[in-house]
Design brief:
Length: 707
C-alpha cells in the first residue's frame, strides 16, 4: 500500500477497526513511546493497515499542531488527533454517477422508439438513471440495455462546491483615516505571509470587525484560507450576515452542533481549499486547512475559549500556536484585552493596534452607578426606582432598553422559611436553581432535576419554601408587571437554543419589534443593535465573589462588553450599574471608562507573587467516588510534590465544588516563575503515581476555572 505521512487509514486494533493517521516517516520511536520502557513494539506484533481512506492527508502543519497541543496539555497525542478526525471519515460519501452518450456509432443495434428517445435525451452532461428515464419516458431496463451495448457510459456527476468563493472587493467599506491606518498594519504580515501577532484593541463600536475584514480580504487575495474564532456559536449568525455583506458569499461555519453531513462536507472543503473562510468555535483549530494564511480570534479575552473538559486547552493561546506552525499571522481582537495578551504586548512579543473612536461619530455610552444602599428597590423587588425611571424614559422615546443579569432561571437558592433548610443538589455541593416556568429545581453543574416541592423536605412545613435572589426569569416577571406595555424578549441559553432561534431574536430586535431585552451573558457579546440606548446591569457585583484570580478582570470585561451594546448608532447610550460596592476599582474603571489604570493595578497585584501572566500555573484536580479515596490520593501527590527554587505547590484543598456529579474533589496548584515550564515538572512529579479504583487526576494547564 502506498502511504505517505498524514494519510488517514483504517487499522485493526484488537477486534475492532478504527481510524488512524500515518504520523511520520521516522526511524526513531517518538519520545512519548520511548519514555515508557518495554513500550517498543516488536515487529512480529505489528499488523497491516486495512485500508487507506479516501480523504486528503492531514497537512504537516496540523500534525505538528496536534503534537504541540498534546505536549503542552500533557494529553496523549491520539486523544488530540481524535478531535481532528472525529467526523466519521470512514463512510465517505460515494460520488454520484450518471449516464453520458458515448462516441460509439448506432450501427448493428436495433433502435426501438424507446431506445431512440433515450439516445435523444442523453448528452455529454451525466444524468442519473431516474432523470434520464423521466426525460425520455423509457424504463431503466432500456437504459441498462443501451449501456450494455456501449452507447451509454457512466460518468461522475460533478456537484457544485458547497462553499462559494468570497470576493475580497465585493462590499469594501470607506474606512476612516484611523481605521485605514490600522487595516494597513494588519494587512502587512498577511501579504508578507509570515507569522506575527497583533492585538487589535478598540472601543466597542469602533469598527474592529470591519477593520480585520480588510486583513481577511488581503488573505483571500493571496489565495489563502482564513480561520476566525468566535467565543460563542450564538454570535455566528450576525457575524455571517456581515460577512456576506462584505464578501458576497457565505463563510463555512464550524461548531459542535453541525449536522453530520454538513460537518463532513465542511471538513473536506477545508482540506481541499474550497472553503476559503471558516468561522467557528475553538474546535475549528483542528480542521485540516490546506493553506492557512490568517487566524483571527474575536473577543480574545473571553474565557469561553478555554475548553474545560477532555483535552483542556485555551483556544486563544492555541490559535497563536496554530498560526505560528502555519507561518501565518494572528490577530487578537478585543475592547477589553486580557492581561495575558497585554503582557505579551508589553514584552514586545505582540504588536498593538488601537481604534480610539466609535464609527460614524457615535459617542461612548455614559456609565453611571446606582447606589443600591441609598436608592434600594422596594422589598422583594430587584429594579431600583432610578433604573425603572430610565427605562420608562427610553420606552417613551421609542428606543430600546436592555436588562442584564448573568444568572439563568428564577432564583439561585430556595430556602425554607420555617427551618432554614436549603435545597441542595444530591450530586454536587451546590444549591439547586429554580426554573419556575418549567416547574423545576435544577443543578447547573450536573443537570439533576426535581419538581419544586410544596412542603419543606426537612421540617415538612407547608408552603414554606421561598426563592432567594433573582435570576432572569424573576427579573422578567418583575419587568412585565412594571412595564406592562413593553414587548419583552428574553435572551439566554435557555431561550436561544439554536442558531435559527438566535437569528430570529436578532431580527426582531433589529426590526424594532422589541422594546426591552432581558438577558444573561449572551447579550454581552458583539451584537450591534442600533436602536438600543439604555443598558441596566441588575447586579454589577455578581462576578466579584469567589476569590477567583481573575474575578475582577472578568467582571470589568463582561460589564464593559454589555455596556458597549448601548448607543452604537446616532442616539447616545447610557448604562446604569446597580451596585452595593460603588467604590470598588471595578466600578471606578467602568464609570471612568479607564481600563488602562485598572489593568495596571491588576498587573501590580499579580506580579510580585508570580500569578499569571507573570508566572505559570497548572491545576491538579483529584477526584474519586469517596472522600477518603480522594484524600488518600491527594496526600500521596502532596507528599511527592517538587521542591525547588521558583516552584511552589499550593494545596491540597477541597475544591470549591467539593462534590461534583457525585465525585469528591481536591485541588492542588503548581505555580512557577515565568521562565520555568510546568510540563516537565508535572511529568516528573506524577510519573510514579498510579491512581487506583475510582480515583483520577486531571491536569489543567493555565487554568481559568478554579471550581
Ligand atoms: P466593533 O467590532 O469594534 O464593536 P463593529 O465592527 O461592529 O465594531 O462596527 C460597529 C458598526 O459600525 C457596524 O455596524 C459596522 O458595520 C459599522 N462600521 C464600522 N466602520 C465602518 C465603516 N468604515 N464604514 C461603514 N460602516 C462601518
Ligand atoms: Zn449537581
Amino acid at each position: 500500500m502506498a502511504l505517505q505521512p498524514g494519510d488517514l487509514v483504517s487499522i485493526p486494533l484488537g477486534k475492532r477497526e478504527t481510524v488512524g493517521c500515518v504520523w511520520d516517516t521516522t526511524s526513531t520511536v517518538p519520545a512519548d513511546f520511548a519514555t515508557a520502557p518495554g513500550r517498543e513494539v516488536p515487529l512480529s506484533r505489528l499488523r497491516p493497515v486495512a485500508e487507506k481512506l479516501d480523504v486528503r492527508p492531514l497537512p504537516g502543519s496540523l500534525r505538528r499542531f496536534i503534537d504541540w497541543v498534546a505536549a503542552y496539555t500533557l494529553t496523549p497525542p491520539g486523544l488530540v488527533l481524535a478531535m481532528a478526525t472525529r467526523i466519521h471519515l470512514k463512510d465517505a460519501p460515494k460520488p454520484a454517477l450518471g449516464w453520458v452518450r458515448t462516441e460509439q456509432p448506432e450501427e448493428g443495434l436495433r433502435i426501438t422508439p424507446a431506445r431512440r428517445s433515450v439516445l435523444n435525451a442523453a448528452s455529454d452532461v451525466p444524468m442519473t438513471t431516474a432523470d434520464l428515464a423521466a426525460a425520455s419516458g423509457a424504463s431503466s431496463a432500456v437504459i441498462r440495455g443501451l449501456a450494455a451495448a456501449g452507447l451509454l457510459r457512466e460518468a461522475v456527476i460533478s456537484v457544485a462546491a458547497p462553499f462559494a468563493t468570497p470576493d475580497p472587493t465585493h462590499g469594501a467599506p470607506q474606512l476612516s483615516e484611523e481605521q485605514a491606518d490600522v487595516a494597513e498594519q494588519l494587512c502587512r504580515p498577511v501579504k508578507e505571509q509570515r507569522f506575527d501577532v497583533t492585538l487589535l484593541e478598540g472601543v466597542t463600536g469602533s469598527g474592529k470587525t470591519e477593520v480585520y475584514f480588510e486583513a481577511v480580504a488581503a488573505c483571500l487575495a493571496q489565495g489563502k484560507q482564513v480561520l476566525v474564532l468566535l467565543p460563542e456559536i450564538a454570535l455566528s449568525a450576525q457575524w455571517t450576515d456581515r460577512f456576506i455583506r462584505r464578501f458576497g458569499a457565505d463563510p463555512a461555519v464550524w461548531h459542535s452542533d453541525l449536522g453530520t453531513k454538513r460537518r463532513r462536507e465542511t471538513w473536506r472543503a477545508v482540506a481541499d481549499g474550497t472553503a476559503r473562510v471558516v468561522v467557528g468555535a475553538r474546535s475549528a483549530l483542528f480542521l485540516p486547512f490546506e493553506d492557512l494564511g490568517l487566524v483571527v480570534v474575536d473577543e480574545e479575552h473571553e474565557s469561553a475559549f478555554k475548553q474545560e473538559e477532555g483535552v483542556m486547552y485555551h483556544g486563544r493561546d492555541m490559535a497563536v500556536v496554530r498560526a505560528r506552525l502555519a507561518n501565518a499571522p494572528a490577530i487578537l481582537v478585543s475592547a477589553t484585552p486580557s492581561l495575558e495578551t497585554l503582557a505579551n504586548v508589553e514584552s514586545g512579543r505582540y504588536h498593538h493596534e488601537l481604534l480610539t473612536a466609535r464609527h460614524g461619530g457615535a459617542t461612548m455610552p455614559d456609565v453611571s452607578l446606582v447606589d443600591m444602599r441609598a436608592d434600594p428597590p422596594e422589598r422583594g423587588l430587584f429594579l431600583s426606582p432610578v433604573l425603572c425611571n430610565a427605562i420608562d424614559e427610553t420606552l417613551k422615546n421609542e428606543e430600546q432598553a436592555m436588562l442584564f443579569l448573568n444568572r439563568r432561571g428564577y432564583a439561585p437558592l430556595t430556602l425554607c422559611r420555617a427551618c432554614g433548610h436549603r435545597m441542595q443538589c444530591p450530586n454536587c455541593s451546590t444549591w439547586l436553581v429554580e426554573h419556575r416556568a418549567r416547574g423545576i429545581l435544577t443543578c447547573h453543574h450536573c443537570g439533576h432535576t426535581e419538581s419544586i416541592p410544596s412542603d419543606c423536605p426537612q421540617c415538612h412545613a407547608e408552603h414554606s419554601l421561598v426563592p432567594i435572589g433573582p435570576g432572569i426569569e424573576r427579573i422578567t416577571e418583575e419587568a412585565k408587571l412594571r412595564f406592562p406595555d413593553a414587548k419583552i424578549l428574553v435572551m439566554s441559553s435557555d431561550t436561544l437554543g439554536s442558531p435559527a432561534a438566535t437569528a430570529e431574536a436578532v431580527r426582531k430586535i433589529t426590526d424594532g419589534e422589541i422594546n426591552l431585552i432581558i438577558g444573561t451573558q449572551i447579550v454581552a457579546k458583539g451584537w450591534h443593535f442600533p436602536k438600543l440606548t439604555l443598558v441596566g446591569v441588575v447586579d454589577a457585583d455578581l462576578g466579584l465573589g469567589g476569590g477567583d484570580l481573575r474575578a475582577a478582570e472578568r467582571t470589568v470585561q463582561l460589564l464593559h462588553q454589555v455596556a458597549g451594546r448601548a448607543g452604537r448608532a446616532e442616539r447616545p447610550g447610557r448604562v446604569l450599574l446597580q451596585s452595593y460596592v460603588g467604590e470598588h476599582p471595578v466600578m471606578t474603571a467602568l464609570v471612568s471608562n479607564d481600563f488602562q489604570t485598572f489593568m495596571e493595578q491588576e498587573a501590580e497585584q499579580r506580579r510580585p507573587s508570580f500569578w499569571p501572566p507573570y508566572g505559570r500555573l497548572a491545576a491538579l484536580i483529584i477526584s474519586a467516588a469517596t472522600a477518603d479515596a480522594a484524600d488518600a490520593l491527594a496526600r500521596e501527590i502532596a507528599f511527592a510534590a517538587p521542591e525547588r527554587e521558583g516552584v511552589q505547590v499550593l494545596g491540597p484543598a477541597p475544591a470549591p465544588l467539593a462534590v461534583l456529579r457525585g465525585r469528591h474533589r481536591r485541588r492542588l496548584l503548581l505555580r512557577t516563575m515565568r521562565g520555568i515550564a510546568v510540563q516537565p515538572i508535572l511529568r516528573d512529579w506524577l510519573k510514579d503515581i498510579k491512581p487506583t479504583g475510582s480515583a483520577r487526576i486531571d491536569i489543567d494547564i493555565d487554568p481559568i476555572s478554579f471550581l
